[in-house]
Amino acid sequence: MSLLTPEKSHVDPSAQVSAGVIPDQSRAERRTSFDVADFAIPNGREEEWRFTPVDRLGPLFRDEATGGHLEWSEHLPQGATLSTMSVQEWRDLGLAIPADRAAAVAAAHSGGVAVLDIAANAELTEPVRIELTGVQRETVHGHLLVRVGKHAQATVVLSHHGISDYSEVLTVEVQDGANLTLVTTAEWQDEAIHLGQYDAVVRRDARYRHIAVTLGGAIVRLNTNVTYDGPGGDATLLGVYFADAGQHLEHRSFVDHNAPRCTSLVTYKGALQGDSAHTVWVGDVLIRAAAEGIETYELNRNLVLTDGARADSVPNLEIETGDIEGAGHASSTGRFDDEQLFYLQARGIPEDAARRLVVRGFFADIVAKIGIPEVVDPLMEAIDRELAAGSEAGA
């Protein structure tokens, strides 16, 4: 028997927030396919698309190659290599299958798969860096496979800049005993659109950490999925996002606990400011009957800085076995705390500086979990710029 647990929510009634609903089917039953024709063009009434402005995504649903591309640059420390494979070769690996039309289109029409390999037993002393930049408004499909060899340790930073209508498939394989930290950043220009399906397979006793930083773009919608292949795997999904006026930033995570004695932690935090700023977080965890002795927790927090912003937060937990160490989830959305602002101003701190301190405090615990200075420092500088821009717009 499957037990569907509704969200635990503590909500400030003055904030605009949409409560979660129990999904109408198990995540295990949702369609996956390599065939684009198996997915109808979304109309916005589907459960997985109901928050998304699908009317603005038409080019990314078309079953056709575009010839568009992003500029690519990389930094590869010793132990990391780049190569390519065909889409069919990627399919034959059996690591991931597209779960919606956009991902199926991207996989079918990417023209090939870039492959980043980290050698077995390698311990990279500096991050692998891949930077993708859109130089003009065009439809682009991207495809990247990251493979981390047995007992290797690495950090990979994948950053997105510029302007594009971009849809990508990213597949990660973390082999036995390996340890990977993957950082993905979306710092697009205001008009850009970015859809992504990110899939990770965590093998026996492997550790995987994905840090998603989303700050720019008109629409960014990322699906982050984890499955296990063997006991002892550990997955941590961390997300930080900041939405301005008119932005739609959507993050969906799915942790499929399909092996025993594995763990997962999902923590996403976001701030919103400006009219029609919209964020969405949907967190799904499925604990299958075979996943005995697992432990999982997911958390989403949203800070609404101005009127006119909206945060939707939907945690879902589906349990098929009672033999687990622990499982839980929590979600909250609240307005900016004027009392904190008053307290700081009363001690001589200017309003702009006080607002930055409050927002920095809101993000402090997740920033501590990230723990990578070269990621954290630019992130906090970018958030300060967002706050400053919001203050100027409201002046």
Describe, in plain words, how this protein is organized in 3D.
Belongs to the iron-sulfur cluster assembly SufBD family. This is Fe-S cluster assembly protein SufD. Residues 136-362 form the SUF system FeS cluster assembly SufBD core domain. Residues 1-26 are annotated as: Disordered. This protein has 395 residues and is α/β, with parallel strands linked by helices. Helix content is 18%, strand content 45%. The chain has helices at residues 58-61, 87-93, 101-109, 338-345, 351-370, 373-394, and strands at residues 3-5, 9-11, 17-18, 71-75, 80-85, 113-118, 128-148, 153-174, 179-186, 193-203, 207-214, 219-229, 234-243, 248-257, 263-272, 278-287, 295-304, 310-319, 326-335. The protein has a 19-stranded mixed beta sheet that branches.
Give the topology.
Elements: E1 3-5, E2 9-11, E3 17-18, H1 58-61, E4 71-75, E5 80-85, H2 87-93, H3 101-109, E6 113-118, E7 128-148, E8 153-174, E9 179-186, E10 193-203, E11 207-214, E12 219-229, E13 234-243, E14 248-257, E15 263-272, E16 278-287, E17 295-304, E18 310-319, E19 326-335, H4 338-345, H5 351-370, H6 373-394
Parallel strand pairs: 2-19, 3-18, 6-7, 7-8, 8-9, 8-10, 9-11, 10-12, 11-13, 12-14, 13-15, 14-16, 15-17, 16-18, 17-19
Antiparallel strand pairs: 1-18, 4-7, 5-6
Helix pairs in contact: 4-5, 5-6
